[in-house]
Backbone:
């Protein structure tokens, strides 16, 4: 695949993105250059000799180097380097009029030429038209004449029409039927015979237990009890560890402290500090130190006191000790310093430093006065020094989150055996299974935090535990899962392959939407007076900008005491009264039987939070527009350059309430740029302008308009940071700053709509969640929501009598097939021959397509949407024949990059609208799926030219996707670009 750059003489300046087309050569000249690899290619253009620094396009099969494309909005400042996880899982576009599959240098399918297209560009008014009619048709000979050439075509056509077979399913059918090892006489006569082969797969045991059904939620004919089906989490763990493609990518080890590229769970403080997941002990100078212990350590010539929070490794793989600092009396700020204070007293702080093991002096005993008093101690602590609103303040020691070592007591692992610690991410949510009648199921899924993010973002790596039946209770269904995790917390021997391991772990995080998350934390729903699961703010305090979160946070040990007080009440009405005063449920959630901190490990979901705020902000904004403003908005919205991979959106003014959450978030991404293009004071209702001016002491109407734009800019920047998969240590502070700025502005603009809004309040907790889990993407349920869609799509293919069992059986079958394709270890067979299928080139079509390229990590390359001659000429090309300039540049590309100086024999090229391919990592796991279309704006790193830096990043617009057959009959794919260059002016949206 190759880049083609077409420079133009057009000096059009795209001011919204600060780039323009290159203009130093004529319009007709096109150049070719391989793009540099974004990841690990060794043949990238960045390695090109400095003596030949010419920016050229992206050449081909033998140097297939495009690794990933990121759609760049025309306003790059907002979305550059962003990673919106919830935009990754869109339903593929079904407009595939023609497909070319590139396999073994041969175009194996080409359906739908331009002669079959009917276009009428001359109709300027709607006078009605005939959509279908009897067309003149080629007559066929034979028994099925004149309509079909043979019986095969007739039967396939009828079968596809009857069962509404889609493009993907039909392509797979054609591959199977045309495979050389396919034999018709081996096809079973009925479906039941085919399904019997499922019994031989390495299936997980499916278990069941009886649960109560609430008659108030179900039809009158429902039984009072029903079987709930589930998988054991221990069986999942064993199967995954016996799957080499998964186990080899899992991380087992101490937390990693990095200042940049914080992506994974092990970059967060929870993994680092918890004995369930990280390193809980270390031998230093023949003395065993544990996390949670207090030490004296040396900084320069000073002796300090601190607490070991974690043993971690840094970017250079050096072992470091993460220490929480404690202060002596004389180290306190001046306003707290007193000579009368006790000399044995220390003050806890939230300052954390990294030290090497050589700086530790000795272990000491410190009494934290919210714990039981020890028999002897060196120091005591009863206050915490912290900073709020740039002022130092004190709070009692009980208002702190306990270190995990204070409530987690592990069984020692056996010596001489490798230990694997498992991080469990539990997700729970309800989904409706039918459209016409409400019949909800509660889905229970797990992910494993030991997987890197790229694996956790794949739907196949979401593992089903079971379903809560319609009318069933979560606590009844989850009991087997709790029992399994209690075993896992203690640890157990597990045979993986032919080796014994000690496997332990526990519940790392529980994710759910906002109301159900409160249930799982044992807190009242968010519309209650004390309805925040992370702090005790009342309804009136939810959006106070100066609310002290640390002083009023919910703390697990305090909540335990409150639950105990509720249970000791004599009657139910008193229990309800006390529970409401604490903002708690009547009893703790069943998950509290496990080692966990309910308030830390049940974070608010950023996806629902940001989508809810975005939807409300859209409603409030549209309400202040005049009729003319709404009309101008729609015109601007329709003409805006949307990424071609986005699904078509309905009118946001009239149909925004039918938007999916992903649609809302997409619209919020581009909303600041829409406002910039059309909004002025005449587009906003005059009474609203006057109200904004009076409430915010503004002098001019333009200032009110600027405040509206600023509000949307702040929200878009915050959303970008929330859904960025890789954070830096400074980004946590940036999240706090953007949260405060957005809250302040939105409350000035729309006080009635956002005052005391729970979602707006929840923003205050985002930075702490990001620190604990590495990034907010790790706790977002955007992709997990897609699992529901998979199950809902299966409903029409079941008998609808026992949906839960049908779903579980299908999931079990798919995981079994996945296990054998991944060459998993099946303990029933010592020397299975099935894994050899993975290396059989005749059967590789089942999971990949081989292409003729030295870069073997590019697979399944397809192009679709063959251009008609009219479309080719409309795009500015002469036709399918290479003109002299294109032929010259193509010859140069073959000569310079492929060392092929032969004259070009074939002068024909084929134009397409779209190319799709997959990129594999070195371990053959899928890195990404890339879809490029004509009209996309993409970034191309490391394409050198002129006097530019090899490592710079360039932007270009794809103007054509072509295939050229070289002299060896290899199909070479080229992307033809219009390149852009940066302008020397500031386009910071915040200065709009």
Residues:
């Amino acid at each position: 695949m190759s880049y083609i750059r077409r420079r133009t003489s057009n000096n059009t300046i795209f001011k919204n993105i600060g780039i323009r087309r290159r203009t130093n050569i004529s319009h007709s000249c096109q150049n070719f250059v391989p793009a540099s690899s974004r990841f690990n290619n060794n043949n990238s253009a960045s390695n090109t000799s400095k003596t030949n620094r010419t920016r050229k396009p992206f050449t081909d099969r033998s140097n297939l180097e495009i690794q990933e494309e990121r759609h760049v909005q025309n306003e790059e400042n907002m979305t550059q380097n962003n990673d919106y996880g919830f935009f990754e899982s869109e339903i593929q576009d079904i407009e595939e009029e023609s497909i070319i599959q590139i396999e073994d240098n041969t175009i194996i399918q080409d359906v739908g030429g331009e002669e079959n297209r009917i276009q009428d560009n001359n109709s300027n008014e709607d006078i009605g038209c005939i959509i279908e009619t009897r067309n003149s048709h080629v007559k066929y000979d034979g028994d099925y004449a004149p309509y079909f050439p043979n019986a095969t075509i007739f039967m396939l056509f009828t079968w596809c029409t009857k069962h509404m077979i889609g493009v993907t399913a039909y392509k797979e059918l054609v591959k199977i039927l045309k495979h050389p090892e396919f034999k018709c006489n081996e096809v079973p006569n009925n479906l039941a015979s085919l399904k019997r082969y499922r019994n031989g797969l390495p299936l997980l045991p499916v278990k069941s237990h009886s649960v109560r059904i609430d008659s108030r939620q179900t039809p009158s004919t429902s039984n009072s009890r029903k079987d709930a089906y589930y998988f054991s989490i221990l069986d999942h763990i064993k199967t995954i560890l016996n799957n080499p493609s998964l186990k080899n990518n899992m991380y087992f080890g101490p937390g990693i402290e990095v200042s940049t590229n914080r992506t994974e769970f092990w970059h967060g403080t929870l993994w680092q500090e918890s004995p369930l997941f990280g390193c809980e002990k270390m031998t230093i100078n023949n003395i065993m130190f544990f996390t949670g212990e207090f030490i004296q350590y040396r900084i320069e010539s000073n002796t300090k006191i601190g607490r070991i929070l974690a043993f971690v490794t840094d970017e250079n793989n050096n072992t470091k000790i993460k220490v929480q600092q404690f202060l002596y009396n004389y180290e306190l700020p001046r306003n707290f310093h007193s000579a009368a204070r006790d000399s044995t007293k220390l003050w806890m702080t939230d300052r954390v430093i990294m030290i090497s093991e050589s700086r530790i002096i000795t272990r000491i005993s410190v009494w934290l006065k919210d714990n039981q008093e020890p028999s002897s101690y060196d120091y005591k602590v009863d206050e915490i020094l912290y900073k709020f609103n740039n002022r130092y303040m004190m709070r009692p020691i009980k208002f702190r989150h306990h270190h995990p070592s204070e409530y987690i007591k592990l069984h020692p692992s056996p010596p001489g055996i490798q230990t694997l610690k498992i991080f469990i991410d539990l997700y729970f949510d309800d989904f409706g299974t039918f459209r016409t009648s409400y019949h909800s199921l509660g889905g229970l899924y797990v992910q494993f935090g030991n997987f890197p993010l790229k694996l956790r973002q794949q739907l196949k790596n979401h593992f089903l535990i079971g379903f809560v039946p319609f009318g069933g209770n979560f606590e009844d269904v989850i009991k087997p899962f709790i029992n399994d995790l209690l075993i896992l917390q203690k640890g157990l021997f597990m045979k993986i392959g032919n080796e014994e391991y000690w496997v332990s772990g526990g519940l790392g995080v529980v994710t759910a939407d906002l109301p159900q998350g409160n249930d799982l934390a044992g807190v009242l729903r968010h519309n209650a007076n004390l309805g925040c699961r992370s702090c005790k703010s009342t309804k009136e305090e939810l959006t106070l900008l100066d609310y002290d979160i640390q002083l009023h946070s919910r703390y697990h040990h305090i909540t335990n005491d409150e639950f105990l007080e509720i249970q000791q009440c004599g009657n139910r009405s008193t229990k309800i009264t006390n529970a409401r005063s604490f903002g708690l449920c009547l009893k703790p959630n069943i998950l509290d039987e496990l080692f966990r901190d309910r308030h830390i490990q049940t974070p608010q979901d950023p996806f629902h939070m940001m989508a809810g705020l975005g939807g409300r902000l859209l409603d409030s904004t549209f309400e202040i527009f005049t009729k003319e403003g709404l009309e101008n908005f729609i015109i601007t919205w329709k003409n805006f350059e949307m990424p071609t991979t986005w699904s078509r959106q309905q009118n946001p003014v009239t149909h925004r309430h039918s938007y999916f959450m992903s649609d809302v978030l997409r619209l919020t991404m581009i909303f600041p740029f829409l406002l910039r293009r059309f909004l002025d004071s005449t587009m906003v209702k005059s009474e609203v302008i006057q109200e904004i001016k009076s409430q915010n002491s503004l002098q001019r109407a333009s200032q009110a308009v600027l405040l509206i734009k600023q509000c949307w800019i702040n929200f878009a920047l915050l959303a970008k940071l929330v859904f960025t998969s890789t954070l830096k240590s400074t980004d946590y502070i940036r999240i706090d700053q953007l949260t405060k700025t957005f809250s302040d502005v939105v409350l000035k603009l729309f006080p009635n709509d956002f005052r005391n809004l729970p979602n707006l309040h929840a923003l205050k907790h985002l930075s702490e969640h990001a620190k604990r889990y590495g990034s907010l993407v790790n706790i977002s349920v955007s992709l997990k929501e897609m699992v529901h869609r998979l199950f809902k799509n299966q409903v029409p293919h079941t008998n609808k009598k026992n949906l839960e069992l049908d779903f579980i059986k299908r999931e079990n079958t798919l995981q079994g097939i996945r296990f054998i394709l991944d060459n998993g270890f099946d303990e029933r067979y010592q020397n299975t021959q099935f894994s050899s299928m993975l290396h059989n080139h005749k059967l590789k079509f089942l999971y990949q397509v081989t292409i003729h390229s030295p870069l073997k990590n590019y697979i399944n390359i397809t192009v679709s949407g063959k251009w008609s001659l009219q479309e080719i000429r409309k795009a500015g090309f002469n036709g399918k024949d290479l003109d002299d300039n294109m032929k010259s540049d193509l010859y140069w590309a073959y000569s310079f990059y492929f060392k092929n100086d032969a004259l070009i024999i074939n002068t024909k090229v084929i134009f397409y609208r779209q190319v799709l391919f997959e990129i594999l990592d070195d371990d053959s796991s899928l890195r990404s799926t890339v879809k490029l279309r004509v009209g996309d704006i993409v970034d191309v790193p490391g394409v050198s030219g002129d006097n530019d830096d090899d490592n710079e990043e360039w932007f270009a617009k794809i103007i054509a996707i072509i295939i050229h057959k070289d002299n060896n009959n290899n199909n070479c794919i080229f992307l033809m670009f219009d390149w852009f260059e940066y302008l020397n002016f500031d386009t910071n949206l915040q200065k709009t």
